[in-house]
Amino acid sequence: MIPRKLIDKLRASERILVLTGAGISAESGLATFRDPGGHWDQYRPEDLANEEAFRRDPKLVQGWYAARRKAILAALPNPGHLALAALSSAVPELTLVTQNVDRLHQRAGSEKVIELHGNIHQFYCIECGLEAPESAFSVMDAGKVASCANCGGLIRPAVVWFGEALPKQALDEAWARAEVADVLLSIGTSGLVYPAAHLPMVAKRRGAFLVEINVTPSALANEMDLVLGGKAGEVLPALLAALQTHKNV
Ligand code: BJW
User: Is 117 a catalytic residue?
Assistant: First the structure.
């Protein structure tokens, strides 16, 4: 299932960059965005994931994020998350960059995770920036609009919406790691959202070996050196096992 060439590449590599997307959390029961049955089947991105939409209908947007946050808190890291956390101890240097806001990588034990699109666990005031207290979630869970205790402004999730800049430090760090990676694993992402989708190309220009793990080929599949079709929660544990077996030979 795992080509020997990949094991050899991983064994020879000094720096591995992993880019994950919503697909890695699918086996934890969380919907992706663009797959059939995904979030964008139900809603148009422009109605939810941008500031204009939020100001137009804060109740809809807060309610959607509050419901997703609840589902995320009830979900568990799956074998894909766990295998990536274990992989970081099996190779010299692994940088994990995620577009996911769910923090399942951290819950699986990955220590340093570069979050490109923020996280869904914190909310802050759109006017004064104050972080919202835990009580705000009860308000949203009850279907009401939560506002800032300090200034009355609307509170929003600490995620990156369309048209917003990614956190500079996270993007700079991810870019820098892409420039020096020997191997890049792109896992469970459609490769449609930029600038995250540029990272594999940045790594490729510098000579990295690109690998995709996805149930269906992504928009970036043609750029890959190797495409492993399958679920992240099955392929990654197999990859880890193959690497460990080979190590012991
Ligand atoms: C499995 C699996 C299993 C299933 N195992 N696999 C060209 C260049 C640069 C930018 C742009 C550009 N064209 C347009 C833009 C702008 C825009 C953009 O990219 N739009 C495209 C859609 C065209 N980008 C932005 O607006 C970004 N900001 C920006 O560019 O700012 C510029 C700026 C600079 C300075 C000042 C001001 C502005 C921001 C993008 C923010 C994206 N936000 C979202 C929502 C975040 C919050 C939330 O979670 O609600 O992030 S959108 C959504 O898409 C979310 C995801 O992180 C992101 C990526 O999705 P992902 O993870 O790839 O999921 P899916 O569903 O697409 O794919 C799942 C995959 O998994 C599939 O391939 C499945 O097959 C696979 N899969 N099960 C393995 N078990």
Answer: yes
CATH number of 1-30+76-117+166-249: 3.40.50.1220
pLDDT tens-digit profile of 60-74? 999 999 999 999 999
List every span in the chain annotated with CATH 3.30.1600.10.
41-74+120-159
Beta strands in 112-240 (DSSP E): 113-115, 118-125, 155-159, 183-187, 209-214, 226-229
Q: Compute the average pLDDT of residues 92-111.
A: 97
Verify whether ligand 1 is closer than 6 Å to residue 209 (CB atom). Answer: no
23 CA closest ligand 1 atom index: 71
Judge contact between 210 and 204, C-beta under 8 A: yes
What CATH number matches the domain at 41-74+120-159, 3.30.1600.10, 2.40.30.10, 3.90.950.20, 3.40.50.410?
3.30.1600.10
Please give the DSSP secondary-structure letter assigned to residue 215: S
Q: Write down the pLDDT at residue 246.
A: 60
Q: What is the pLDDT of residues 43-60, one digit of tens each?
A: 888 789 999 999 999 999
Atom of ligand 1 nearest to the CA of 33: 66
Across-strand partners of 185? 18, 211
What stretch(es) of the chain map to CATH 3.40.50.1220? 1-30+76-117+166-249
Q: Are 203 and 196 in contact (CB under 8 A)?
A: no
Mean pLDDT throughout 168-178? 98
Q: Which of 19, 20, 25, 32 to mutate to test ligand 1, by most ligand atoms within 8 A of the CB atom? A: 32
Residue 15 has pLDDT above 90, yes or no: yes
Residue 249: which pLDDT band, with cuts at 50, 70 and 90?
A: very low
